[in-house]
């Protein structure tokens, strides 16, 4: 195994030859990239095997998630191995530029947004903390669509991320699991014992592909992200069919089976109530649990599973994997022959559940009929869970109809997945203090009465080693020079930066780093999209999925207002502004797509108006994803976190911006509330209705958007501009936005918050001219961002939910 530059060069040269039989001079950039990945994978296996004995045989955590947005791995793994420097030099001596190889890697889009990225941050932190924690998900052949913008419209292009292969993964056919769908259940009575026999089912083979997860400076713990791919049982064709001469049938079976892991549902605008989605959910749940039970038996002797919950935690990321509960019951009862009570005890103590949204449309429910035809045995188990739960409930809450009514699993022909999750798990957590409070007091208030002890909060965090250390090398260097390197392991150390908050020279250096990052970002945008942006202007950024509740429309109306003001008084605009948007709209979410169109129309309008185009600019970054984020967060001056209060469960972009020194302009929503606590109210720019007020309006009415329209002429002008030919050649295009505000009474209180938003924006505009003060606030944001590292979040999950030990990291000395 290589240990220095020279041995690396030797090893690398042989790897290139091994790959394609070519020399370095003949190899393509892709071949060279693949060779480097292969070498690192080898190094990981080496560490894994030499250290296997010292690895604990303790509890294993399995994080079940439909989505993992892991981002590119190569650069991070070089940073984590602390190898970047000598590998870069070694490659250079072979005439290879490391950056060209980094470019080759695809960014797997196996997720929609925050939920999927959170799962990836958690994997990193578990590895860092020495927790044997593994991901379990789906290896979608096509990830989230790639977004192209044509004529201001979003066009979706299939994301064929596997077309050249994915060199990090390892196919493990010997670890495949058979999954059974459809069929019938026959009961049999043997010596007074009922057994359930699943018959006439259709089988699908789940084949795992493993991706190694390694974190910073902890090569002992190489964890595993296991992604499942659906295949027919006998390889390429359904041979039985084929032999009977049913050629067409055999091919269609194959594609029906493979469709299960074909594509990620891109919809976070309306729930995908589709059979295929349910198949996906059961598929990865059953495959994951099947392989966990198998490896449990291998580790603990093939005896019983009585101690299962002491050795295994299964965490479910939102309700998508909630079938873990009836599936584990099925395994324990039907395969391990346990009785209901013991199986239930083990299941509840094994499973824990995180809720990620309060949006009612996002709450998963499945038709009973669909579950009955696809998963007949699972339905029986859910029915029995429901029967027993109701029995207990009626005994406890006899006179309280409401509690009994609101806690049903079965309602109006549907199964409510969140309800099953709460009943069948030992812990239910929200992802920020405010969100958890809303879960307890509003969304699940009746469950909170029944199972108060299960509810808890775990505020989200992000991987500061990816989003600060690796994404912002210049800032990282500056920080390390100031306070030493220990912050990389313990983000709380960043607090030490506070001693520099009045240090003029340090603040100047900080500002210069920001400027360089803005230049770097501007270069990329110029190269990729041919757009010119001025790094001297203030970068005001909103990047996230496009959604009505996230209120990109509020941001656009603000820019329209600035434009209108500049028309009346050219002096009103101080400084120059670049407003940066990025984010995907779900393909069938018309409103969100029109918002993208509006951003482009406004961008054009401003660009073609010489009265303002030197001072205002609006850009839309195509195809926002993890890699784009890594470039944008370090370059931002202002972080827009402007969701309608109560609606954003946590947000995690807000944390990534903060740790890179952007100032937050936001509502008191999600984790913004805790960011405010951390930085202090003078160092964050809060506006708008509180969550309480929003919930009060939603419950009791009393808000009329027309009142805001009539009272405020600035609002009136902007709103009318959506509808009056202000944008050239747009016809009725933006009518749907106008209607959302005026006909449907502005569900997300955009007009209500408009005035206070402008005021805060104006305050920031003024502040930006006071460089010293701006830089001081930026520093305070970086210094107080430590608590938003996912290391902190995972420690809390480990202490309170999984009850598992982790390593403590002392300055330079790691110990358990
Ligand atoms: C899904 C849907 C589908 C139906 C229509 C409305 C709607 C709204 C939101 C969603 C997303 C649900 C799950 C999710 O991605 N939640 C996000 O999880 C992040 C990690 O905890 C958190 O930071 C975000 O605030 C939260 O939106």
Automatic annotation (TrEMBL):
The keyword 4Fe-4S does not apply. It is an enzyme of class 2 (transferase). SUPFAM superfamilies: UDP-Glycosyltransferase/glycogen phosphorylase. It catalyses: [(1->4)-alpha-D-glucosyl](n) + phosphate = [(1->4)-alpha-D-glucosyl](n-1) + alpha-D-glucose 1-phosphate. GO terms for biological process: glycogen catabolic process. The modification N6-(pyridoxal phosphate)lysine is found at residue 656. The keyword Transferase applies. It comes from the Bacteria. One of its GO terms (cellular component) is cytoplasm. Keywords: Carbohydrate metabolism, Glycosyltransferase, Pyridoxal phosphate, Transferase. Its EC number is 2.4.1.1. It holds the Pfam family Phosphorylase. Belongs to the glycogen phosphorylase family. This is Alpha-1,4 glucan phosphorylase.
């Amino acid at each position: 195994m290589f240990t220095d530059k020279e041995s690396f060069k030797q090893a690398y040269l042989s790897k290139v030859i091994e790959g394609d039989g070519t020399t370095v001079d003949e190899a393509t950039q892709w071949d060279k990239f693949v060779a480097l990945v292969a070498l690192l994978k080898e190094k990981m296996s080496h560490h894994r095997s030499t250290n296997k004995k010292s690895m604990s045989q303790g509890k294993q955590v399995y994080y079940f998630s439909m989505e993992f947005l892991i981002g590119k791995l190569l650069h991070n793994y070089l940073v984590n191995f602390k190898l970047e420097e000598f590998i870069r030099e070694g490659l250079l001596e072979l005439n290879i530029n490391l950056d060209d190889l980094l470019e080759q890697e695809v960014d797997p889009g196996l997720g929609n947004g925050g939920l999927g990225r959170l799962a990836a941050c958690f994997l990193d932190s578990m590895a860092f903390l020495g927790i044997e924690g593994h991901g379990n998900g789906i290896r979608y052949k096509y990830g989230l669509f790639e977004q192209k913008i044509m004529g201001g419209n979003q066009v979706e292009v299939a994301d064929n991320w596997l077309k050249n292969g994915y060199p990090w993964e390892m196919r493990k056919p010997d670890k495949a699991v058979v999954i059974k769908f459809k069929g019938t259940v026959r009961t049999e009575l043997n010596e007074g014992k009922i057994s359930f026999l699943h018959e006439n089912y259709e089988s699908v083979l789940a084949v795992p592909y493993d991706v190694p997860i390694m974190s910073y400076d902890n090569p002992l713990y190489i964890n595993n992200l296991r992604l499942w791919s659906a295949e027919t049982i006998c390889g390429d064709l359904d041979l039985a069919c084929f032999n009977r001469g049913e050629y067409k049938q055999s091919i269609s079976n194959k594609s029906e089976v493979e469709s299960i892991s074909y594509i990620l549902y891109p919809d976070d605008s309306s729930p995908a109530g589709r059979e295929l989605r349910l198949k996906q959910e059961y598929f990865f749940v059953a495959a994951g649990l099947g392989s966990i039970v198998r490896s449990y038996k291998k580790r603990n002797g093939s005896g019983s599973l009585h101690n299962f919950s002491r050795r295994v935690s299964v965490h479910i990321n939102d309700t998508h994997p909630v079938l873990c509960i009836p599936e584990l019951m099925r395994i324990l009862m039907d395969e391990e022959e346990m009785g209901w009570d013991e199986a239930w005890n083990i299941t509840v103590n094994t499973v824990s559940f995180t809720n990620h949204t309060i949006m009612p449309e996002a709450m998963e429910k499945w038709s009973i009929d669909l579950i009955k035809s696809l998963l007949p045995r699972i339905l029986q188990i859910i029915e029995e869970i429901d029967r027993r739960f109701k029995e207990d409930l009626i005994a406890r809450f006899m006179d309280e109809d409401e509690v009994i009514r609101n806690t049903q699993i079965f309602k109006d022909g549907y199964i409510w997945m969140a309800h099953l999750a709460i009943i069948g798990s030992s812990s239910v957590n929200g992802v920020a203090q405010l969100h958890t409070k809303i879960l307890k007091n509003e969304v699940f208030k009746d469950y909170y009465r029944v199972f108060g002890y299960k509810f808890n909060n775990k505020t989200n965090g992000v991987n500061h080693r990816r989003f600060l250390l690796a994404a912002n090398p210049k800032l990282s260097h500056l920080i390390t020079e100031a306070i030493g390197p220990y912050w990389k392991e313990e983000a709380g150390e960043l607090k030490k930066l506070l001693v520099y908050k009045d240090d003029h020279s340090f603040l100047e250096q900080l500002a210069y780093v920001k400027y360089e990052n803005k230049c770097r970002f501007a270069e990329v945008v110029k190269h990729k999209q041919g757009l010119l942006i001025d790094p001297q202007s203030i970068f005001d950024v909103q990047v996230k999925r496009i959604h009505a509740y996230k209120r990109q429309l509020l941001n656009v109306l603000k820019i329209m207002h600035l434009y209108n003001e500049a028309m009346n008084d050219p002096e009103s605009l101080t400084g120059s502004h670049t407003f940066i948007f990025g984010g995907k709209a779900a393909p069938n979410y018309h409103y969100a797509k029109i918002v993208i169109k509006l951003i482009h129309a406004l961008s054009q309008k401003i660009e073609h108006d010489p009265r303002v185009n030197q001072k205002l600019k609006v850009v839309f970054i195509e195809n926002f994803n993890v890699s784009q984020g890594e470039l944008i967060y370090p370059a931002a001056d202002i972080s827009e976190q402007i969701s309608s209060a109560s609606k954003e469960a946590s947000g995690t972009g807000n944390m990534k911006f903060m740790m890179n020194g952007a100032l937050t302009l936001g509502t008191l929503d999600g984790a913004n509330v805790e960011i405010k606590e951390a930085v202090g109210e003078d160092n964050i720019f809060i506006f708008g209705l509180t969550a309480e007020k929003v919930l009060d309006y939603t419950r009791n009415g009393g808000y009329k958007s027309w009142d805001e329209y009539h009272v405020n002429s600035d609002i009136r002008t902007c709103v009318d501009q959506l509808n009056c030919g202000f944008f050239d050649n747009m016809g009725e295009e933006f009518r749907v936005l106008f209607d959302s505000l005026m006909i449907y009474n502005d569900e997300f209180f955009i007009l209500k918050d408009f005035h206070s938003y402008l005021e805060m924006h104006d305050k920031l505009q003024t502040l930006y001219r006071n460089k010293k003060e701006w830089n001081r606030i930026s520093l305070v944001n970086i210094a107080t961002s430590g608590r938003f590292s996912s290391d902190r979040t995972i420690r809390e999950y480990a202490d309170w939910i999984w009850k598992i030990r982790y390593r403590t990291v002392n300055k330079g000395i790691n110990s358990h």
